[in-house]
Specification:
Layout lengths: L1 H5 L3 E6 L4 E4 L2 E3 L6 H12 L3 E6 L11 E4 L3 H11 L5 E4 L6 E3 L20 E3 L3 H7 L5 E8 L3 H11 L4 E6 L10 E2 L1 E5 L2 E4 L3 E2 H18 L1
Parallel strand pairs: 1-4, 1-6, 4-5, 6-9, 9-10
Antiparallel strand pairs: 2-3, 7-8, 10-12, 11-14, 12-13
The protein binds cytidine-5'-monophosphate.
Pathway: Cofactor biosynthesis; coenzyme A biosynthesis; CoA from (R)-pantothenate: step 3/5; Cofactor biosynthesis; coenzyme A biosynthesis; CoA from (R)-pantothenate: step 2/5
Cofactor: FMN; Mg(2+)
Keywords: Decarboxylase, Flavoprotein, FMN, Ligase, Lyase, Magnesium, Metal-binding, Multifunctional enzyme
């Protein structure tokens, strides 16, 4: 099924962290490696899909045959997604997008003052990229991720509904799983159905995710 389904399907993926600059030498970031999103891109391309991969700052090679767009901040990622989403049948939002950006980033390096004991940064909410795509009409089939350290399934179900996603991949972060790790254990959740995968490499998780997306779309 997956081979037939994915052949020539247009798939858009976001992957990696976003970096929110404070000044030319400092940023707010997170520990996403981008490995899960890149693994999905690689496996989908092998199944014959036409893959566009919007990547935050990561140290990973571009999978063969995948069109890659590099971005840095959440706002840049949002702009790239807005450009691309309409040409794609499926959108997988695997990026760990920063929730907040600096209200103002300084053009010059911020200098500490003599005797300064603290620093307050003003942050502003970033756009929710996946929720925005899910609101468009027409819209692609939208798959989100929920990386959590606790209450993983509960938070994921809440996000599925709140962001109006078609599917969400819940994953536990920590214990050698999730961020920075080569292994993962996703639970794939649609309205009403939960499919728990067993722990395996991110490539294997990607294959099973792509199979399941094909199954769900074909059954709808
Ligand atoms: O709310 P939370 O960040 O945990 O939701 C995770 C899901 O939402 C992921 O699929 C992530 O890619 C997406 N997201 C996004 N834009 C944001 C925040 C999260 O697309 N600003």
């Amino acid at each position: 099924l997956a081979n037939v389904f994915w052949k020539d399907k247009k798939l858009l993926i976001t992957a990696g962290p976003t970096f929110e600059d404070l000044d030319p030498v400092r940023f707010l970031g997170n520990r996403s490696s981008g490995k899960m999103g890149f693994a999905i891109a690689e496996q989908a391309q092998k199944l014959g899909a036409q893959v566009t991969l919007i990547a935050g700052p990561v140290n990973l090679p571009t999978p063969q045959g995948v069109e890659r767009i590099d971005v840095r901040s959440a706002r840049q990622m949002f702009a790239a997604v807005q450009q691309c989403y309409a040409q794609n049948a499926i959108f997988i939002s695997a990026a760990a997008v920063a929730d907040f950006a600096l209200a103002q980033s300084s053009e010059q390096k911020i200098k500490k003052q003599a005797g300064q004991e603290g620093l307050t940064l003003e942050l502003v909410k970033n756009p929710d990229i996946v929720a925005w795509v899910a609101e468009q009409k027409p819209k692609p089939f939208v798959v989100g991720f929920a990386a959590e350290t606790q209450n993983v399934i509960g938070y994921a179900q809440d996000k599925l509904q709140r962001k109006k996603l078609d599917m969400i991949c819940a994953n536990q972060v920590g214990e050698n799983l999730g961020f920075e790790s080569d292994e993962n254990r996703l639970t794939l959740i649609t309205a009403g159905v939960e499919k728990a995968l067993t722990t395996s490499s991110k490539s294997q998780q990607a294959v099973e995710l792509l199979d399941y997306i094909a199954e769900v779309i074909e059954a709808s």
